[in-house]
Amino acid sequence: MGDTALIIIAVAVAILVLFLVILVVKLMKTVDEINRTIAIVTKDADVLLNQADTLMAKTNTLLDDVNTKVATIDPLFTAVADLSTSVSKVNNSSNAFVTRFTGKAKNTGKATAVVTLGKSAGKLFKKKNKD
């Protein structure tokens, strides 16, 4: 009976060792595949990071160029805004002048309207010269 028990134990240990060997072989294949995957991912990540660095450098250059051009154009927009304000003031003054002249011309004849126009223009120019 003792010999049979030893044979059963020996067979059980042999089967266990066989399963462990198979497990270790599969585990080694899995570890090799993981190592290859990590190497590929690392290589691709390096390429991606290099491209991102290049893209960032080009973006910075482009942004500097745009900022320089905007700084160059900025005085133009300021000048256009000032010109628009000046034209608006001239337009308002012209409208006020025409309104005053029309009101005075209704009450007078044609000859007096011309004289009134001359006087009003003289007053307007004197007022503008004072400003």
UniProtKB/TrEMBL annotation:
The chain crosses the membrane at residues 6-28. InterPro entries: UPF0478 (IPR009293). Keywords: Membrane, Transmembrane, Transmembrane helix. The keyword Membrane applies. PANTHER family: UPF0478 PROTEIN YTXG. This is DUF948 domain containing protein. It comes from Pseudolactococcus insecticola. The gene is ygaI.
